Amino acid sequence: MSGRLTTSGRSLPQPDGNLGYLFRLAHQRFRARLDSELEDLGLSAQDYGILSAFEARPQLSASELARISQVTRQTMHTSILSLETAGLVERSARNQRVVLVRLTALGRECLQTATRRVRAVEHAVLADLSRQDERTVRAWLASMAAMATSPEKAQAEPTEES
């Protein structure tokens, strides 16, 4: 149903459209491409995001993974169980409250394969941009990602114009 709401088949999104809508639509399309490329590996874009968190640290708690992925602990628990069933991660209890998660050998192999595919999708998405335009887009996205979430904080932050 959301596909029908986001595309009419005859008109493409216009650059002067609502910025929030363009963000959402771009994210949906990018994620759909990732899902398609990762499907035969048994991964979704969200699963890939979880596995890729282990590139920075070999072992993370379920709570840390939930924070990194910006999902609830309950949602992360379900994802971890699914990845564990697939043989991609293993869990170990540090104590009664903390469960540590790490990639298995199969998980590391799957992550490497998935990362190559994700990079290919990224390359395809950026193919029409010059190197300078790509740097501009990346800088702008990084700036947006670092932006304060509340209006009060945003107003208190200095700008280059000040």
Main sheet properties: 3 strands, antiparallel
CATH class term: Mainly Alpha
- If you average the pLDDT, what whole number results? 87
Query: How many beta-strand elements?
Result: 3
Q: Residue share in helices?
A: 55-70%
CATH architecture: Orthogonal Bundle
Q: How much of the residues is beta strand, in percent?
A: 5-15%
The succession of helices and strands, N to C, reads HHHEHHEEHHH
Short synopsis of the structure:
The longest helix is centred in the last third of the chain and has 22 residues, at 105-126. 60% of the residues lie in helices and 8% in strands.
Describe the structure.
With 162 residues, the protein is mostly helical. The chain has one domain (2-128): Arc Repressor Mutant, subunit A, CATH 1.10.10.10. The chain contains 8 helices and 3 strands; from the N terminus they run H-H-H-E-H-H-E-E-H-H-H. A 3-stranded antiparallel sheet has the order 1-3-2. Strand 2 (89-93) and strand 3 (99-103) form a beta hairpin. Helix 2 (19-38) packs across helix 6 and helix 4 packs across helix 5 (73-85). The radius of gyration is 19 Å and the shape is globular. Mean pLDDT is 87; it is low at 1-5.
Note the main attributes of this structure.
8 helices, mainly alpha, 162 residues, 3 strands, Arc Repressor Mutant, subunit A, disordered N terminus, globular
Topology:
Layout: H1 2-6, H2 19-38, H3 45-52, E1 59-61, H4 62-69, H5 73-85, E2 89-93, E3 99-103, H6 105-126, H7 131-146, H8 151-156
Antiparallel strand pairs: 1-3, 2-3
